[in-house]
Amino acid sequence: MENGQLMELPIEYLWEGLVLKNDIFNHTGAVLLLPKGETVTSSKLNRLLRFYGKDKYIMVYEDTYLEIMSDEHASPKARQEMTERYMGYTKLHRNIGSIFQAPNLTSLLNSAQMEPIVEAISSKLEKFDPIMIFSCINFPRPMDEGLQRHSLNVAFLNGIQAEWLKLEPEDVKIFTLAGLLHDIGKTMIPEEILNAPRKLTNDELKIMRAHPLYSDKLLGDKFGSRVRLAARHHHEKLNGKGYPDGIMDSEIDLCARVTAISDIYDAMISARSYKSARLPLHVFDMFYKEEFDGLDRGLVMRFLKNMRLKYTNKSVIMSDGTQGIIRYIPPNDAGHPIVQQEELIRQADENWYCREMVAIY
């Protein structure tokens, strides 16, 4: 089908003034609702909402779906929901949650349960541009979904980093699995500590810092040593000032070093009630300025180089609500990229800054 497959789209994601580049059908795909070339008016939109209801779906071709997702009229929440559904992130997140929240978690932690999820993640690494994956990772998540989303995000980030390191496909899967399970020990941390809407007390922090040991215990000998070591050592530092074992330099396996970068990046991107979410560009600056000590500097610089390349020539919404294209991201000042808007090219500054990374298509 030249326009791509038909896909579900909530009616509420249409807007007045949208010019249809393709036909729109009812929820079964059998009845033409609005033909190609028509403009969505308020009366047409209200008629659809009255007839089908706000929460109902219509069917659009894949190219129309992508067009609506990337348009500045789409709200960040709508864009996020559509993106996650389109690339299958929503289903993966649900599958991980069903395992992590299961009362019989110990019995479910085995390669037979995890292999399909790792394979699904690997297939998406092959199919989708990393920017689409980043758009799922970068969006704030509900507090009670923190562990599941964080684990999935770190799995994706580990897999992407492993590919950038040009590792063999089987090693990419090992790094992906390590990311997925690196924080499994947090399932043994009391929820009032794990989801505390504030900074932890010193006593609570000691309990939280035991999660790598819990992860090691839960994983046992069910997975390879690299997965287990990544779970135990992703908070270790090359200077020996990490935890739980205080090891340093070459004692820390490559998989654990990569997982540390993925773990920190996702933690900085996410929002908690006591900490605002940060844009990727600002996190790049934090890594460049070595605000996180003890990381492998070579891996960090490779990560930043590839991330800057991926975001170059992608869309961004500026603080004044206008949309532009990122043309260059300075290595030492990523928070102020060079942005193009038609013929105008200028550098972002404190008064005109990046508000949202659309950066998808």
Task: State the helix count.
Answer: 16
Low-confidence stretches: none
Strand content: 5-15%
Question: What is the H/E order?
Answer: EEEHEHHHHHHHHHHHHHHHEEEEE
Task: Report, as a whole number of angstroms, the end-to-end distance.
Answer: 20 Å
Number of distinct beta strands:
9
Describe this structure in words.
With 361 residues, the protein is an alpha+beta fold. Helix content is 48%, strand content 10%. It has 16 helices and nine strands. The strands form two sheets. Strands 8-7-6-5-9 form a five-stranded antiparallel beta sheet, with no helix packed on it. A four-stranded antiparallel beta sheet has the order 1-4-2-3. Helix 2 (62-70) runs antiparallel to helix 3 (76-87), helix 4 (89-100) packs antiparallel against helix 6 (111-127) and helix 6 packs across helix 9. The longest helix is centred in the middle third of the chain and has 19 residues, at 146-164. The mean pLDDT is 90.
